[in-house]
Design goal:
Number of domains: 2
Mean pLDDT: 89
Largest sheet: 10 strands, mixed
Oligomer: single chain
CATH class of the largest domain: Alpha Beta
CATH superfamily of the largest domain: Periplasmic binding protein-like II
Shape: elongated
């Protein structure tokens, strides 16, 4: 009887230490546990203005997650919003709010604001005009001004290179540069790919268009608007009006690989890319829309 009491007492004393030892082991195992890598494949389509950043981020994400593949396609903001709303892609990239796209049930979509992008008026280098007023810009894109000599430039025909009606870049330019005026139909060339617009303006005498700053290079010239240049400082301060948020929309809350990629897009690893590629972090904006 006395032996049983001794054994019971010993067990009671030892149990807390055994439990602590087990708990410590679990905690250590938890600390050493590596996060599970995501796998599978998703597609993001839409805005060509956002495409360079999305492609580079997808490449980096794939290096960290070799079993996951993020496919990035263009097509324009309208295409991205339509395809994500239909469930054809997991992410719809857009320069505009879903509410601004006709035929889209924005209530079904979740907005993930990635960054800000500015848009510049660009012209062929043989155009000597460095600045246009809002009204001059409106008159050019609505077909009232057809020769550069009418705005102080050379005797050269104005060649408009614009975007299709589904383009988010066109929507932004029309709203903030043309103050809502409709671009004249059939007056110029048209392309929904930013890279094609850049090359067309570069190669075509008298050409004028508009392009995300993430694409602008020294093959074309930028034109000031009312004396204000399209720079990061002028955009963040609100002095330059032609800019928009870059959105990644999902149909409902994202899960799995889609969520993992969107979390990555908002991570510190992608922030250097945003500035490097000509975009603006949301946190730097002193104005909002």
């Amino acid at each position: 009887m006395r032996l049983k009491k001794v054994i019971a007492t010993t067990l009671l004393v030892a149990l807390p230490f055994i439990a602590a030892g087990c708990g410590g082991g679990d905690k250590k195992a938890e600390e050493n546990k590596q996060p599970a890598q995501v796998s599978g494949s998703i597609t993001a389509s839409g805005s060509t203005a956002l495409q360079p950043l999305a492609e580079k981020a997808a490449q980096q994400f794939g290096q960290k997650n070799p079993n996951a593949k993020v496919i990035v396609q263009g097509g324009g903001s309208g295409t991205g919003l339509t395809q994500v709303a239909q469930g054809a892609v997991q992410i719809g990239n857009s320069d505009i709010f879903a509410e601004d796209k006709a035929g889209i049930n924005a209530a079904e979509l979740v907005d993930h604001k990635i960054c800000v992008v500015g848009f510049a008026t660009i012209a062929n280098k043989k155009v000597t005009v460095d600045n246009l007023t809002h009204q001059q810009l409106i008159d050019i894109f609505t077909g009232k001004i057809t020769n550069w000599k009418d705005v102080g430039g050379p005797d050269l025909k104005v060649v408009i290179v614009n975007r299709p009606a589904s383009s988010g870049t066109r929507f932004t330019f029309q709203k903030y540069a043309l103050k809502g005026a409709e671009e004249a139909a059939g007056l110029g060339l048209q392309s929904d790919a930013s890279g094609t617009v850049l090359k067309t303006v570069s190669d075509t005498e008298g050409a004028i268009s508009y392009l995300a700053l993430s694409y602008v290079n020294d093959t074309v010239k930028t034109v000031k608007l009312d004396g204000v240049e399209a720079t990061v400082d002028n955009i963040t301060s609100g002095k330059y009006p032609i800019w928009s948020y870059e959105h990644m929309y999902t149909k409902g809350q994202p899960t799995g690989l889609t969520k993992a990629f969107l979390d990555y897009m908002g991570s510190d690893e992608v922030k250097p890319l945003i500035k490097q590629l000509g975009y603006i972090p949301n946190s730097e904006m002193k104005v909002s829309r």
